[in-house]
């Protein structure tokens, strides 16, 4: 698949996905990525890192990676063949090859009563089956932080 009209990034599917949702700009994902030069030398390697689509944190690779991720699903592995315009520019005139794996797609929802983003739920792993917890169910909850609106609550610092 050609990702941009100028043919600067070619995407080839290596492994089929196991999920059904695709991320969009602003979504957080967990990805693994290995970037190699056309000569086979490793330029960069990231394993199971959190990345937000559109934040530009992958530097010169962000544009190609963002575009590819928007068409991927959890578990999918693709190879992107990038021209220098979508990789490292003059630093790598031959471009680069990116092996990209979408490990997880994190779903974040506003679950506050007033829908004012004061309480957010982030799904870090999609459940299996159709069961959902009921009022008396036991669940495992992990909280990163809690505040009273201004200062952290004791025990959450």
Automatic annotation (TrEMBL):
Region (Disordered): 124-157
Boundaries of every PPIase FKBP-type domain copy: 26-114
Top-level taxon in the UniProt lineage: Eukaryota
Gene3D superfamilies: 3.10.50.40
Entry's EC annotation: 5.2.1.8
Keywords: Isomerase, Rotamase
Species: Noctiluca scintillans
GO MF: peptidyl-prolyl cis-trans isomerase activity
Reaction it catalyzes: [protein]-peptidylproline (omega=180) = [protein]-peptidylproline (omega=0)
Lineage: Eukaryota, Sar, Alveolata, Dinophyceae, Noctilucales
InterPro entries recorded: PPIase_dom_sf, PPIase_FKBP_dom
Biased composition (Basic and acidic residues): 124-138
Protein name: peptidylprolyl isomerase
SUPFAM superfamilies from the UniProt entry: FKBP-like (SSF54534)
